[in-house]
């Protein structure tokens, strides 16, 4: 018997073979007699023994071969084996003799020695099909066939699958050899890495003949054009493909098309091929990568540079991706990365002049304004010719903060916006590449959030190539303590991305992975990951001592040759280059660096703006930065937008709209007819007029399509057809710009980052992120702090991003009340102690230009409209953070007349009190406030009958502070007491921001002795109480602080008003009831009519009577004329200021 055991590497055993034989033998004696146990014809099947308990146990897997041998001997000479075996093989297991006189007891045949691996699991299919052939389902006995042969084939198939699925677990990925494959050498002398963890139950399978040929299943391409391969070759090929220097992790992908595509790229013989020229190019690029770090180390030995040493192959990998992508049509590559290897990427990928990079080391003064950033965070862009493909390509490295991975969504958003600009709907022109560290890739939640954007229709970049520079350590922490997953890349499995783990010391394997990744992304437009498993030659930075924390690892590292040296030795050995060629290569790059060094010495200053990643050169060119365009629009525009926005989809769409929506639309229409706008109309006017002007508007966030508080309803849903939507703002003008409103994933950090990135791409767009509740923006704090608040200062990069944050205390508890105005104001960079030059005719624009962002707390729809339009009316871009109270979305008083939107109108930074302005001398209290509290103060003033003595002024734009307008108010009400009233707790809201600025203004004012006092809630750690009673107690307390206790007269008056209102309401209810009854009657009548019509229609089916109303025609009255549609019974009057009656309404509401 030609039997091979591969114990330790692959001990393939068929435990069920004997078992199958036995069981079947018991039932199919005649068939068994002709059956061969093995393909080896010398081995005949034994006769079926009688059933015995021992029979099954003795025929366990480890004994079958032994038994086979005994059987052969017994066949030749029954006496040559133990009598018990003789009895067994002759079919008499209870004893060799059947004679009753023979008292010899059955004894268990001697067993083969125990194998090293004794536990084994049988394939379920074997058990199912063979354990009980006379089953209750009365399955027919299987046809005569060679079951062993079939089993061998099935096992080969399972082994192929095992390699494909888990081969990467035993791949030789670690150049340090710490995480080593546990493979051993098998009997055929081949070293095989696939261990039990890869092969599972098949690890102990015994094949008789490694040279036996097997048919390859269609699920593998290891054979190339061959359909059959000897087992040994199958195993060798699988080993080489799956357990070599590449760990291909792809079987999590559910698409067969994709898995087959990947197999083709790795399994096909000669899949990994490099011509001598290609090999030389890889070495040349490695020389640059390693040479650059060596050069910096030589010149600045103690400077932090976060070198790439140990993962030097990353540069050739990126080069390959870019070369290949440009040849496939990519015009713009957007790179996001952290510190590690960044300078190398700038020098060798973007070709930033090395002298400029060296200039950053010289500690030179900047000639432009801003705070700048450390050299390994700076961004840049470069438009250059790719010499290999002879195509132009723009390469951008997005500036990033120290917060690892948070640049990811920004890169994605920027890439998406660029795709939009280039009309690239498939991602074939713009390619995002994100480079990760191993510890941060698995550690930072934003990675997961960003990956989840990858396939969302309005966020996808049609695939991102992720490259992990996996140096197997994060600062000082090794992976055993930094992650629970096996790989640092496991997070990418959630989006079904293929992951190619590759040993960084095998450049050809690395470049092959780069090629496959590029092609995968180009073919399937999906994310893909390359995990470069390398090491970090130095400490976390060059000044760090790694031996403190990783002594053993660094002992090994110190003995390692660089990848460049190893590869050069390989190529010299192969005869691809000579030692002299290699030397010349090194010298050539060294000279480039030395020349740049000399050049850099001539530099005396640097410019932050030469590190910009989003140049808007055309936008800024020839512009007067202080010139602002008007924001008002014509009445005609308002009417047109209003009409379309308040109408259901046109009839031809046959769009079934929800009844509730129809009611909302009717209300909108009434408003438009009355030339009044509520919050949603104000917003729609802004968006509609912007797209009319060719400005692309994008609104994104959780549930923004409807609006969290159901005020917006931009996307209408067909009530009986799935995925049929209608957005009227997309259909305003034939040549309008694109309006995109999109519900996002439930993420703040990644989505806000994405929108910020989007806003960086094109100044002619308004990009808005709306928080579900303002509070939730704190999960995106990192994006707010490091990008939105400080991006321009650090990186000279502007953004007109808008954040809409629902804010105001409305008794909704601690987490649904505050957008944390105080935090945004605290990050504003205007000096509270400096009174600006308000006489400057460009004061308003200058103030905006110099601030880091604009913070508003608006109280009218018109101001929202102007604020949004001002975002592109400015000749520069600033982020706008707007707080919008939830209750104002529907507040009957928070409405603006159309004239507040017209060409003569503009954004109001401060809204004076029009009631008291005529008689300022009567005013003894001047209240400054911001946001929704204005309406509370206004109502309470009326209730307290202090309309003439108290002035209420709204500061709509908190930052930059409207000093000029505040001064006017201070001057107007010379003798009034000054109060700042806010509903937020004292340590929150705008108080801490406005107080020093009021002081500065008051100091500036001549002969001023007043100071401003705070009225509002006491300090608190929570933004609001969750207890309604406490909420109202607090409210009353601070209103009493403002207006004092109510007088008896006040109370009586209020009671009177309440009674009047109640009577009115009652009357209205009665009228409503009557109207309802009438409507019901009408409905019943029309049902009757329609039933009658149907009946007569049925009767006259073949001969419809003339004059039958067409389907959808309006019902006719008794006179035969079409009935007038019922007018909606809503009365709306134009109002600019709240009136007494409207306030009484509010009293009732309260
Ligand atoms: C969000 C965040 N947390 C902590 C740090 C501090 N830090 C800087 S680099 C680093 C290690 C990162 O390890 P890894 O991602 O593996 O990248 P490597 O530096 O090894 O290339 C840490 C913890 C940071 N920059 N950002």
Automatic annotation (TrEMBL):
UniProt GO molecular function: metal ion binding; oxoglutarate dehydrogenase (succinyl-transferring) activity; thiamine pyrophosphate binding
Region Disordered, annotated ranges: 35-58, 85-118, 1065-1150
Compositional bias (Basic and acidic residues): 1071-1100, 1118-1138
Listed SUPFAM superfamilies: Thiamin diphosphate-binding fold (THDP-binding) (SSF52518)
Keywords noted in UniProt: Glycolysis, Magnesium, Metal-binding, Mitochondrion, Oxidoreductase, Thiamine pyrophosphate, Transit peptide
Family: Belongs to the alpha-ketoglutarate dehydrogenase family.
Ranges for domain Transketolase-like pyrimidine-binding: 677-891
GO biological process: glycolytic process; tricarboxylic acid cycle
Pfam annotation, one family: 2-oxogl_dehyd_N
Biased segments, Low complexity type: 40-49, 1101-1117, 1139-1150
Cofactor: thiamine diphosphate; Mg(2+)
Function text: The 2-oxoglutarate dehydrogenase complex catalyzes the overall conversion of 2-oxoglutarate to succinyl-CoA and CO(2). It contains multiple copies of three enzymatic components: 2-oxoglutarate dehydrogenase (E1), dihydrolipoamide succinyltransferase (E2) and lipoamide dehydrogenase (E3).
Source organism phylogeny: Eukaryota, Metazoa, Ecdysozoa, Arthropoda, Hexapoda
EC number: 1.2.4.2
Gene Ontology cellular-component annotations: mitochondrion; oxoglutarate dehydrogenase complex
Name of the molecule in the record: 2-oxoglutarate dehydrogenase, mitochondrial
